[in-house]
């Protein structure tokens, strides 16, 4: 044994050939600070080992190395000087691997991401098996590669390919990686270790010139000056178009590659280190790392629920076809749970089946699904007009019209037909689960399961626990949602649940400005381009449906009459009364049609400006943002204080996945923390005269005064 640590062991496996194996105690290998220290010690031992002729780098697990330990990041990055020391020291460990006096071969199975990819890049050769996924996804955390990736990758696959991979965070499958020279060979999983040994033996024998393969990584980037200039100009334009000003990481990555291209390895690494450290201090990085942590927490809860579930969902039913029902049925069947789609009208069933076919047809056109898979999924959806068709299913998803009386009758009827242990759920977006539960004899096996439209694209499912819902029911529904490929967040029952409840004050804040004559298109522009929402509030209202938004005002006014009273003279109510329902009928705040190329298009509607009394009045961007966001954040705080949502992190993920909250802001609570609780309270107090929605809770005021954090721990 050459070296033995907690996560790494090194030993000779053949005459003069050593195997450095990553073998962490946990489920995956990752570069936490302790493992990086062991890696350095192991490489020192190897460098001083007599009779060493070659090294293969392997993993004892189905995955190579998933990257750095992200759980350490927020604590580590809090001290900029500590971060500088850490990244400089850590990146030089990979130099130790690259500087071994013998040929090195990485044998990659499963994920080799971030630091895992950078470890492979530090080797002379890379052999991967057919399960491998290799890439540098750091930009998704608001960072760039920190262990030499911006220096080594351009010298291995060229600056144009490298910049595309680094600035997009794109992962590569084996054949794609082979085409661009990222890896040297692709083999079957059972042949991986033998292939790595064979390659290192060829290098030892001189059949492969490993020193020539290594040398370009130690020198300035060898590239035609004109071509290099064009490469960087093009990359900067692409980053500006795709990432925009809110995401600094892609821009920093380009600068690091460009600055490092002129220098040998050490100076190139200094450029990378400086860019990496700078990014660690940005709000975008903190937000995106926070998202990763929150996502891991939510997924951990879902896994725990799946283990606790006493009922497995093997067959499902959807009541109510059409767009939503068809989407739910497709998603269930696509993920391997056969589904019965029940309706009382044949044309609705046809619409539901057509919706499923349309979704898959687009996947086939894009090469993401073949016709065989499409046929299999469609055959897993059984349309029926008969109540008997739902017998024997494990769960019934009610997705009929958003009317409490209709839903109540349908649910009661289903309860009398299905087995006594069949779970019933409602896909309602606003109606109280406790109210609907009154129609059932056994409310313990009933809860809400709120999908977002379009179902196949939106990742969130709100699982709404009623007063009498059993924990076994919640666990089974969370497990089913997870199997459907969704992120399930459990919330308690209240008007609007979580997402729609906090969306309403945001839209009400917007409507208040429109009622004052402020140009709604100008508000949209600020909230999209400056705050970062994918759609401004006027456009979002049109997409959701003005009639739907107006219906929500009734529900919210019933639940929160003093804070969210219904105003029949508001912009939403006036548009709904004029039957301007938004995209669904081509007219809302905007008019909808198609452009010259047949693509959907929207344009300002002069008649709406006249109807609503809107002028060209503009407000400062900061005021527009405050008047929209203060009510939303306040309502999120209330939901947390009332126990509607279990944690600030889950609230952040719900709005990210359910509404498209700007990722670089990290969610409403991360945004609140970035603004600063005391600053937010002062901002809200400035607008408190506008109504209860703008008035902070006593709990938030106390948190601000005591310097506490909603995201601590």
Strand order of the largest sheet: 13-12-11-14-15-16-17-18
Percent range for β-strand residues: 5-15%
Remind me, CATH topology of the largest domain? 2-enoyl-CoA Hydratase, Chain A, domain 1
What is the count of distinct domains? 3
Give a count of the beta strands, DSSP E runs of length 2 or more: 20
Q: Which whole number gives the mean pLDDT?
A: 95
Short structural description:
The chain is of the alpha/beta class and 713 residues long.
Descriptive overview:
Residues 496-592, 624-708 form the 3-hydroxyacyl-CoA dehydrogenase C-terminal domain. InterPro entries: 3-OHacyl-CoA_DH_CS, 3-OHacyl-CoA_DH_NAD-bd, 3HC_DH_C, 6-PGluconate_DH-like_C_sf, ClpP/crotonase-like_dom_sf, Enoyl-CoA_hyd/isom_CS, Enoyl-CoA_hydra/iso, FA_oxidation_alpha_subunit. GO terms for molecular function: 3-hydroxybutyryl-CoA epimerase activity; delta(3)-delta(2)-enoyl-CoA isomerase activity; enoyl-CoA hydratase activity; long-chain (3S)-3-hydroxyacyl-CoA dehydrogenase (NAD+) activity; NAD+ binding. The structure is a single chain. This protein has 713 residues and is an alpha/beta fold. The chain has three domains: 3-281, 2-enoyl-CoA Hydratase, Chain A, domain 1; 312-493, Rossmann fold, CATH 3.40.50.720; 500-706, Orthogonal Bundle (N-(1-d-carboxylethyl)-l-norvaline Dehydrogenase, domain 2). It is 51% helix and 13% strand. The protein contains 30 helices and 20 strands. The strands form four sheets. It has an eight-stranded mixed beta sheet, sandwiched between helices. It is globular, with a radius of gyration of 28 Å. The model has no long low-confidence stretch (mean pLDDT 95).
